[in-house]
Amino acid sequence: MAKDKLKVRRPRAETPRGFRDYFGTEVTERNRMLATITEVYHRYGFDPLESSAVETVEALGKFLPDVDRPNEGVFAWLDEDAWVALRYDLTAPLARVFAQHRNDLPSPYRRYAVGPVWRNEKPGPGRFRQFYQCDADTVGTPTVAADAEICAMLSDALEATGIPRGDYQVKLNNRKVLNGIMEVIGVLDPADPDAHAARRGIVLRAIDKLDRLGDAGVRALLGEGRKDESGDFTQGAQLSAEQAEIVMGFMAAKRDTGAATAARLRELVTGSDTGAEGVNELETMAELLDASGYGPDRILIDPAVVRGLGYYTGPVYEAELTFEIRDEKGRPRQFGSVAGGGRYDDLVKRFTGQSVPATGVSIGVDRLLAALTAKGRAGMVAEGPVVVTAMDRARMADYQRMVAELRNAGIRAEVFLGGGNMGKQLKYADARNSPVAVIEGEDEQARGVVQLKDLALGARLAAAIETNEEWKAQPAQMEVPRAELVAEVRRMMARREADS
Amino acid sequence: MAKDKLKVRRPRAETPRGFRDYFGTEVTERNRMLATITEVYHRYGFDPLESSAVETVEALGKFLPDVDRPNEGVFAWLDEDAWVALRYDLTAPLARVFAQHRNDLPSPYRRYAVGPVWRNEKPGPGRFRQFYQCDADTVGTPTVAADAEICAMLSDALEATGIPRGDYQVKLNNRKVLNGIMEVIGVLDPADPDAHAARRGIVLRAIDKLDRLGDAGVRALLGEGRKDESGDFTQGAQLSAEQAEIVMGFMAAKRDTGAATAARLRELVTGSDTGAEGVNELETMAELLDASGYGPDRILIDPAVVRGLGYYTGPVYEAELTFEIRDEKGRPRQFGSVAGGGRYDDLVKRFTGQSVPATGVSIGVDRLLAALTAKGRAGMVAEGPVVVTAMDRARMADYQRMVAELRNAGIRAEVFLGGGNMGKQLKYADARNSPVAVIEGEDEQARGVVQLKDLALGARLAAAIETNEEWKAQPAQMEVPRAELVAEVRRMMARREADS
């Protein structure tokens, strides 16, 4: 007996920890949003690329195995004698693809990519180990015109998905300006770039904490250090008050116009060639964008954008949604960032030894879809199919003929194929969010008619109508000649659309 | 020095063995084909499902680990204490999803799924370890009306992608008829289904080899056995000549009409209840399909369809393309199968203990795309963007303004962002398959005009035009006022479309 029991132990029907499935409109609405975005990318001359989901660990780079099993952050396994892994983003594969196929690709190479990526991280609420990314990058040109183009494209893409102008801002910053600041405060020496790395790290991390710690906390971290509430002490960057002032000034440099902001930044980086170059780049981008109609109402210089400043090498950009939503406790809060990117000039060099300039943006697919849902632009319940009920199993051929007629007229339709009486069939139709149920029993067949049940109207009537007269005036069920099935269903669905 | 050399060893820019990347139209044409197919599925009431790419090895089932590392056929790795793997098809995940979410899903549950699957198999020419599948299944109903519906849907989907009626056939068979044959020849005992398993296996394998071995070879395998050219002997099923005749008769049972084929099958399975049930199912399906307009010109009973008979439990169906293509040596050959499916009633039972009837089809995405390319319905070169050349770097803002105008008019356009003279820029435009190049140098700017170069026409003219008069009559380059840029480009592209 024990052995028999062991034999019938059943597998658990569960996704692995941190993975999930997507159903119905979750799939179609994401696909529709991505199709809208990639149509904009296509209009900008970007070509699609779908790279392999599996890469050699060697090509992914960041995660080279220094232990037997390189599982830091990625899902990796040994394929015969080589470690391979699922891609963790779409940028590392782009660098590999460009290095591998550079002789066959146009230069500059504008490409977009959409697809799942995988992260071997601790899952949490709303935090999954497989999710979509949607990237666009231009590889092979150093001109910031490429960065400006991507900012304009991002702006167009957001508006195309249904985020109105005024409800988002694309914010621009530049790593070189920050480097200029670092030079001015003496923690970056152009002649010896590796010196002061630890103090630069402290400055970068302090800047990144402005939101959380406020002015005083950041000033403490820029100076001697900071003791937090628990009493733990974080070592500071040991800047003088004057030096710290320059860093604080950088983050607060935003003025009413791009020109004024640039002028303020130019003051702050006085004496640094790199800093001046960064300000020039910001000015050039603003000029190019203004010329093509992407003014500060859409894209503006904002030195408070620091996300990614540690990673990128030149322009950095981020799209923020500026409208308020309610959080789970009903409190208003800003939606925040839905896309970010910038210039990274050394990714391809790993493979070829040659520096290949590149710039690109990644849209947070799940976040943008959540934003569209919050704006009522997505998250709608899908219209279900017209359901032809099956009163009499033996007459399935008649019911199939009906759905074939409806489908040939472009109407989504299905026959009920399960078991059960009329009540169960109508319940199924309701659960499917079906607009219309079709009923043809023995009596109807004999008289050459069908009953059409307007399920949505029926639900509304049941909730709202008070008198019998009203019910009769707007019947939720009607009898029509069999020959007029398609025309009548179409009419009911059109009325429903007009009502909603 | 040796140490320094080691340090700069560069990673190889290569996909792992058996994986590949897809570029440009390879991506868009597959997506377009899949969008067409899923639109048909949607019209039939099927809902999309996108399940996790990673499953527990336990849920995938077939590959339960009986060794430390379960790598037979799948890519698997240890995730903390559980083995997980990339899905190898879309059916095993459906069974897991249905078992996991059955209380929230409609019943019957019609779903379609599109996405990559992964196989840990030896790669070969044209045989990759990641490829797309496109499936549609109905879970939760035993009626063969569901099987018929899927056959009709498959037929509609093929026609929607561009395979004309007459160029394909959906062929129907039924596992129960084969089981009836097995009963009649004495290798299947309904009272003891496990008996004779070995001989049934030999019969199944023999049937499957009809194409390759011909009548005589199959007869040998059904009887004593067969010695192949190398002298190796394959044990036969030990059927008598009369018994073998019944098997051969089964495979050759196709007649001019479905009714005649069914009648012939009914003769062959005389005495077997299962066989009679299978014939009834085939008849019912043919009846339902005829009633909704899917006659034998699209869907027909063909007992020679044996693919999958070992796996499925009831109806089996397969879509074959019947037109000829040329193989790599220029010889005509039939295109063959592009989709297959059938009824499998026990996949969900593994999880829940309850038998859940299901039926479904899988389209071979790469094969169908190859077929459409062979028919000239896919494989076209994508139209590249209008390229605005950048004669003068300092005037990038003007060029950006031009592409913004073109894009706002819905025209795909880009500025040349690379380095190089006009010759290099026009070469780039050609490589991009650009329809029109826009040129505005100092002189043009001063006169308020732009040059438009019709690149496609230019190529044709260079090849075909013989006299100077003709050249002038249809110039490949024209000067137009700057203000008429968009209108003129649109006119040139419309003319191009009309010409092609």
From TrEMBL, chains A, B:
Example of a GO biological process term: histidyl-tRNA aminoacylation
Q: Which Pfam families match?
A: HGTP_anticodon, tRNA-synt_His
Gene3D superfamilies (UniProt xref): Anticodon-binding domain, Bira Bifunctional Protein, Domain 2
Q: What is its EC number?
A: 6.1.1.21
Instruction: Please name the SUPFAM superfamilies in this protein's record.
Output: Class II aaRS ABD-related, Class II aaRS and biotin synthetases
Q: Catalysed reaction(s)?
A: tRNA(His) + L-histidine + ATP = L-histidyl-tRNA(His) + AMP + diphosphate + H(+)
Single GO MF descriptor: histidine-tRNA ligase activity
Instruction: State where L-histidine binds.
Output: D89, L90, T91, R119, Q133, D137, R307, Y311, Y312
For whether the record's keyword set contains Electron transport, the answer is no
What domain of life is recorded for the organism? Bacteria
Where in the numbering of this chain does the Aminoacyl-transfer RNA synthetases class-II family profile domain appear?
Answer: 1-385
Any one GO cellular component localisation term in the record:
cytoplasm
Keywords attached to this entry? Aminoacyl-tRNA synthetase, ATP-binding, Cytoplasm, Ligase, Nucleotide-binding, Plasmid, Protein biosynthesis
Q: Which CDD domains match?
A: HisRS-like_core, HisRS_anticodon
Q: Subcellular localization, per the record?
A: Cytoplasm
Q: What does the sequence similarity comment in the record state about its family?
A: Belongs to the class-II aminoacyl-tRNA synthetase family.
Listed NCBIfam families = hisS
Q: How does the record describe its quaternary structure?
A: Homodimer.
Its recorded name reads: Histidine--tRNA ligase
